[in-house]
Write a structure and sequence with these properties.
281 residues, alpha/beta, 6-stranded parallel β-sheet, 10 helices, 9 strands, binds pantoate
Length: 281
């Protein structure tokens, strides 16, 4: 597995692969990889001739009071996981390689970024769209792979690719969960044992939401109210949001019909965790 730290190295290698007629896959990550990332990497390797994974904790998608400095990092462990998945090249740039000191060009999206995580993380999606655009320009993949756990990010990236005519296929991959239901996340490492137990309230509430819809609930407010009530039974939980939105536009709905995303962000202690499910009704 090649480890590249500069944009030039990646470009030269990808150029060579393209000359040889290979298709290219990209798996963008912020490292501290878990089975969720491994599932993206394996999917990419199975669908593309050559696959690049990026490991870069992107500073511009963190707000001033967020966990940029604390964000967990373990690059050698990440490399072991990526090599096991059959990744051909890891791109691990420094922040200086990605952002010149006078960097001042951003990709900003309206509408889809105003709800859900966009409400409490106002600059987050601008940072995500900017870094993902840069990675797309550097790696020029045929396909790029993103997890459905970050459902709003996936919708935003799909829209950006359409709006800016990137000509890249975006492949969404299912949420990977721990045996007890907790969605895998690099941030789970922040949880102490009591919080780890309390964090199960997210997946339990996903299951509650799904079962209420299966039983016929079609009123979005009634659904999210019942889900919020359930979350509040957990003393360590503090709700950021629980919302039902249109699966494409990310705008709130009152009736559950068509493609719907039900998403939540919940603080367990100081750790903000997200979970979601999608339904088509
Ligand atoms: O999902 C993530 O880990 C990040 O938001 C991404 C897509 C790698 C951009 O930094």
């Amino acid at each position: 597995m090649i480890i590249a730290s500069t944009i030039e190295e990646v470009r030269a290698q990808v150029c060579q692969w393209k000359k040889e007629g290979f298709t290219i896959g990209l798996v963008p990550t912020m490292g501290y990889l878990h089975e969720g990332h491994a599932s993206l990497a394996k999917k990419a390797v199975s669908l593309c001739d050559k696959t690049v994974a990026s490991v870069f904790v992107n500073p511009i998608q963190f707000g001033p009071t967020e966990d940029l400095d604390a964000y967990p990092r373990d690059f050698s462990h990440d490399c072991n996981i990526l090599a096991d998945c059959g990744i051909d090249m890891v791109f691990h740039p420094t922040p200086e390689e990605m952002y010149a000191s006078d960097f001042c060009t951003y990709v900003d999206m309206e509408h889809l970024t105003t709800q859900l995580c966009g409400k409490s993380r106002p600059i987050h999606f601008r940072g995500v769209c900017t870094v993902v655009s840069k990675l797309f320009h550097i790696v020029t993949p045929d396909k790029a792979f993103f997890g459905e756990k970050d459902a709003q990010q996936l919708a935003v990236v799909r829209r950006m690719v359409r709006d800016l005519s990137f000509g890249i296929e975006i492949v969404g991959c299912p949420i990977v969960r721990e045996a007890d239901g907790l969605a895998k996340s690099s941030r789970n490492t922040y949880l102490n044992s009591e919080e780890r137990q309390a964090a199960l309230i997210l997946s339990k509430t996903v299951n509650l939401g799904k079962s209420l819809i299966e039983k016929g609930q079609r009123d979005a407010n009634a659904l999210t109210a019942a889900m919020k009530e359930n979350i509040l039974t957990e003393p360590l939980a503090r709700i950021d949001y629980v919302d039902a939105v249109d699966g494409v536009t990310m705008q709130p709905v009152s009736q559950l019909k068509g493609q719907i995303l039900v998403a939540m962000a919940v603080y367990i202690g100081k750790t903000r965790l997200i979970d979601n499910f999608s339904v088509t009704l």
